[in-house]
Design brief:
The chain has 465 residues and is of the alpha/beta class. It contains 21 helices and 7 strands. Helix content is 51%, strand content 8%. Helix 2 packs across helix 20, helix 11 packs across helix 12 and helix 14 crosses helix 17.
Length: 465
């Protein structure tokens, strides 16, 4: 038996009999309900295949691609990627890559510079199989529901054609991030032009903007959409509560005079738009998914490049964001327009702030109305799982957790669900052994079933309360 066969054995990551029992008996057979995957609806509608391992396995993966494009001519070959393997010891990318090779291609040998030619030949042969297509992979990985974030201006024709296939439920989620980017004068105006065209509504006032977005929400709803997915990363509380008249002047300033909005105007606009999109989500019986936290890394650099106002709310503490989010939730709750709300930290460092907001609002709303989501990296970085479980325990919300979406940019990332589930079972088993969770296999197994499948399914079907 090769080292990889020993590593990727049926009990991979399951270091105890409890962990193995939890996974194999309760979790392994469950279908996948993925509330966020950045896969191509065009590829799914066409049931496309892939020409080579680079196009399928390497280019669409940001981590692998970054290794292969750093400061030189890109080389998206298995051989080029294998040259980085010796440096990946201890990296989550090593385990996830080997799991992809094993599950997708049946490769049991570990990828190394020495085995790269043979493994490349196997991948090339498998990809040439007519059965290795986008929709076939959904069936192979038992995907029941796949939610794909889409800009409100995107054409949803591919989702229409997917309804006519035997593939699992593939639906769009409404991601209006571009509507908030008013500091990008040229880009925002170009986006509004697109919104006007697809909604057939001229945008001269703030009410026009809401009406245009609501029309697009209706189009998305016809394709099965039930999630409004917004980023809250670049604003705090406005100095004075905005009204729609003042926001009309902001839109006229940007659309007619082509002048940039002030810092206060940007803050007021974003704050009110996030609130009103939540109200519209409540009216449509949708989930409001808020990706919460400060901008960091490349996103922060981009904000500086665009001369983004109110940067003190970005680079300072999370307090301004937390106060703004809590205030908005309280306002919606008081008016009876608080939707089912999922707050997902953009970065693991934002998780405690998000949990604090949920803890503050929970006594005043129905149980489970506002819940804690998951950083996109949760399923791939083992150390984050323990702190997430601790926060959920403090919120008395472990049994309500919707698990970790794949945030897949590649069809190979469908294996992330298995990786997350194995790590989750291992963590539960360790806590059962230590005594922080009851040593009750059926009870813990039922909780794991809820986290891995039933809770995200209930979120999408509107049966959370």
């Amino acid at each position: 038996m090769t080292p990889s066969q020993t590593w990727m054995n049926p009990d991979f990551l399951l270091a105890s009999p409890r962990a193995a029992a939890l996974y194999h008996e309760y979790v392994e057979p469950l279908p996948v309900v993925d509330i966020c995957a950045f896969l191509s609806p065009a590829e799914l509608a066409a049931d496309s295949g892939w020409a080579n391992p680079g196009d399928f396995w390497l280019k669409p993966d940001p981590e692998k691609s970054a290794l292969l494009t750093g400061g030189k001519e890109p080389d998206f070959s298995v051989k080029a990627f294998s040259a980085h393997i010796p440096r990946l010891a201890g990296s989550p990318l090593l385990a996830s890559s080997q799991l992809e090779l094993t599950r997708l291609f049946g490769v049991m040998r570990q990828l190394t510079p020495g085995t790269a030619p043979q493994i490349n030949a196997i991948l090339t042969e498998r990809l040439a199989d007519p059965a290795f297509t986008a929709r076939c992979l959904l069936r192979r990985f038992n995907v029941e529901t796949l939610c794909i974030p889409m800009d409100p201006c995107e054409d949803l024709k591919h989702f229409t054609s997917l309804k006519q296939t035997a593939t699992g439920w593939v639906i769009p989620t409404f991601r209006p991030d571009a509507a908030f980017e008013i500091e990008d004068l040229k880009g925002w105006n170009a986006w509004i032009d697109r919104l006007e065209k697809c909604s057939r509504r001229t945008v001269r006032t703030y009410e026009d903007l809401l009406a245009a977005l609501e029309r697009r929400m209706a189009v998305f709803a016809a394709q099965g959409c039930v999630i409004n997915d917004c980023r809250m990363a670049l604003f705090g509380m406005p100095r004075t509560p905005p009204d729609h008249v003042s926001l009309d002047s902001v839109i006229r300033k940007i659309r007619n005079a082509r002048q940039p909005a002030s810092a206060d105007e940007v803050t007021a606009f974003r704050s009110e738009l996030l609130h009103d999109l939540g109200v519209m989500a409540s009216k449509a019986h949708w989930v409001s998914h808020i990706r919460f936290g400060r901008l960091r890394g490349l996103a922060l650099l981009r904000a500086h490049t665009l001369r983004a106002p109110a940067m003190e709310n970005v680079t300072g503490s999370e307090n301004a964001l937390s106060v703004a989010l809590l205030s908005m939730l309280q306002r919606q709750n008081a008016a009876g327009t608080l939707p089912q709300t999922l707050i997902s930290p953009i970065d693991p460092e934002d998780a405690l702030s998000a949990a604090s907001v949920i803890d503050a609002i929970s006594p005043f709303v129905p149980a489970g109305r506002v819940t804690l989501g998951t950083p996109g990296s949760m399923g791939r970085i083992p150390g984050l799982l323990a702190s997430q479980l601790d926060l959920l325990g403090l919120l008395h919300a472990l049994t309500e957790w919707v698990g970790a979406p794949s945030c897949a940019t590649s069809f190979a990332h469908l294996t992330r669900h298995e990786l997350f589930r194995r790590r989750l079972c291992a963590e539960f088993a360790a806590r059962m052994t230590a005594g922080s969770l009851p040593d009750d296999l059926p009870w813990m197994g039922s909780i794991l079933r809820d986290i891995c499948c039933e809770n995200p399914r209930r979120l999408i079907t509107g049966q959370t309360e």
